Amino acid sequence: MPHILITGANGQLGHALVTQFASADRLTCWTRPDRDIADPAIADAVAEAGPDVVINAAAWTDVDGAEEAPEDAFAVNALGPKYLAEGCARCGAEFVQVSTNEVFSGEAGRYYREYEQISPGSTYARSKAAGEHAITAVLDRLYIVRVAWLYAPGGNNFPAKISAAADRLGSLRVVSDEFGNPTHAPDVAAAIAQLIEKRRFGIYHLTNDGCASRYEWAVELMRLTGRQSLPVTPIAAHEWPRPTMPPPHAVLINQAGAALGINLRNWREALADYVRTEFSM
Ligand SMILES: NC(=O)c1ccc[n+]([C@@H]2O[C@H](COP(=O)([O-])OP(=O)(O)OC[C@H]3O[C@@H](n4cnc5c(N)ncnc54)[C@H](OP(=O)(O)O)[C@@H]3O)[C@@H](O)[C@H]2O)c1
């Protein structure tokens, strides 16, 4: 197994990647306190570490907060991947950059394969799109892995927040006209491990199979945690105002990965696994 370097090792996906690659001959894990990917010196650090593969799971992920701090979001999400790619170019490493479904405008009813034109709306989405462009200018041997609606045990994610709100309020109001692919981070980590063995560089959509509205996701979570009688009211996105309006239907299709035999299970099956771990059911 090659020497793997993981950035953002304390994040939801980063943690899942550390677990996935725990048996690698050599594993280097960097958290934000170890190394700031927005520091240009990160390129030297990568070149010195000399890994075979760098997987960047570090990112500015505060979508609403990016509107208030666009320079900081671009520094982490656009310049950070560029510096990492420069380090990879210097030591001959391959690079996996994790990106987002939000690079697509997500008009109602649209499904997005890997080759579709991107059209990011929010500052966060533009910063992630800029990261995709920046690394493509530096490196050929790279994978861009777009994911969506990530969650993992212990994370600060939609299922955790919905579960806490259900306990606190005894009922839920959940947006029913925003759709995506609920995706279990450990499944993405396993898919990335499969992908880097193929050495077929390019853009991939590695999400759990199928799609859901936030409302359907919440209802399924309530069912799986034995709270099916808790009232869940569907509401429109405009009834839940946010500083940024997410793309209503940025649903990803995994065509490129599936063609190589990389298939992620259905989101309901993955959510059931998460519930067993997180709620000890
Ligand atoms: N979460 C989602 O629903 C979602 C959806 C689509 C795409 N994605 C993408 O998937 C990837 C992983 O997301 P995630 O949910 O695992 O994110 P996460 O849990 O927020 O983890 C991100 C990690 O990056 C670290 N980080 C932030 N700024 C950094 C910097 N300047 N230098 C080094 N590390 C830094 C954070 O450290 P601190 O904890 O110290 O801040 C955190 O550990 C990201 O590329 C994200 O854009 C996520």
The H/E string reads EHEHEHHEEHEEHEEEHEEHEEHH
- CATH top level label: Alpha Beta
Strand content: 15-25%
CATH topology-level fold name: Rossmann fold
**Residue-averaged pLDDT, rounded?**
97
Shape: globular
Total of helices? 10
Q: Count all strands and give the number.
A: 14
Q: Quick one: biggest sheet?
A: 6 strands, parallel
Number of domains: 1
The assigned CATH architecture is 3-Layer(aba) Sandwich
Bound molecules: NADP nicotinamide-adenine-dinucleotide phosphate
Please estimate the helix content.
Answer: 40-55%
Segments where pLDDT lies below 50 for 5+ residues? none
Q: Would you identify the CATH H-level superfamily?
A: NAD(P)-binding Rossmann-like Domain
Distance between the termini: 35 Å
Radius of gyration: 18 Å
* Sheet with most strands: strand arrangement: 2-1-3-4-6-11
Assign the structural class, choosing from mainly alpha, mainly beta, alpha/beta, alpha+beta, or little secondary structure: alpha/beta
